[in-house]
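User: Please fill in residues for this 198-position structure.
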């Protein structure tokens, strides 16, 4: 049996991220600060507003991070402008065992005070997630009360369901045959007919 060599564990890295929202701006100040802070690698997005959450440089950076690494930015707002996005991102880093540093704001989770801050951010992130969930559920209840369909789009129209029910009741066609004619699963027809009866 062939023995394979176990992959050597990658040493933790300090990885920097720079962003400027205007194409005319330069990242030099941020890059200099990150290099001085000891970053091994620096990712960036040029001319991308902080409100945009999907960014190529940031996405590549987040995918590359491993447990023990440290994400370093010049300032917290370089990661993003949305509070909930920042909180969720930092909470995700914490769960992955990735430290975080914001140079100009003195945030450093490799220290005891920084880890305490991480814990507080996690509480805020959870609170914000619960608030969003509650607002979503309240919106869905309000929509249902107004008679609007909530959830995935229906595969069958009300007319198709009524017609299917009539055909099954009159024994004109089997559920399987009706399902084939509408291009859906027989279970979809069965459920739709049952819901219509309620």
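Assistant: Residues filled in for all 198 positions:
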């Amino acid at each position: 049996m062939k023995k394979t060599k176990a992959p050597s564990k990658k040493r933790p890295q300090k990885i920097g991220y720079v962003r400027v929202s205007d194409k005319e701006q330069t990242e030099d100040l941020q890059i200099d600060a990150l290099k001085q802070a000891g970053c091994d690698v620096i990712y960036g997005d040029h001319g991308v507003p902080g409100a945009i959450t999907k960014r190529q440089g940031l996405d590549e950076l987040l995918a590359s991070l491993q447990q023990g690494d440290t994400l370093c930015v010049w300032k917290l707002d370089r990661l993003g402008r949305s509070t909930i996005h920042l909180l969720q991102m930092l909470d995700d880093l914490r769960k992955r065992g990735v430290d975080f540093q914001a140079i100009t704001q003195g945030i450093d989770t490799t220290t005891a005070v920084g880890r305490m801050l991480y814990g507080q951010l996690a509480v805020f992130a959870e609170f914000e997630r619960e608030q969003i969930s509650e607002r979503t559920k309240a919106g869905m209840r309000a929509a249902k009360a107004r008679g609007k369909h909530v959830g995935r789009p229906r595969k069958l129209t009300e007319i198709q369901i009524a017609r299917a029910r009539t055909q099954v009741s009159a024994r004109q066609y089997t559920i399987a045959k009706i399902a084939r004619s509408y291009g859906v699963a027989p279970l979809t027809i069965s459920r739709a007919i049952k819901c219509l009866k309620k």
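For context: Residues 1-8 have pLDDT under 50 and may be disordered.
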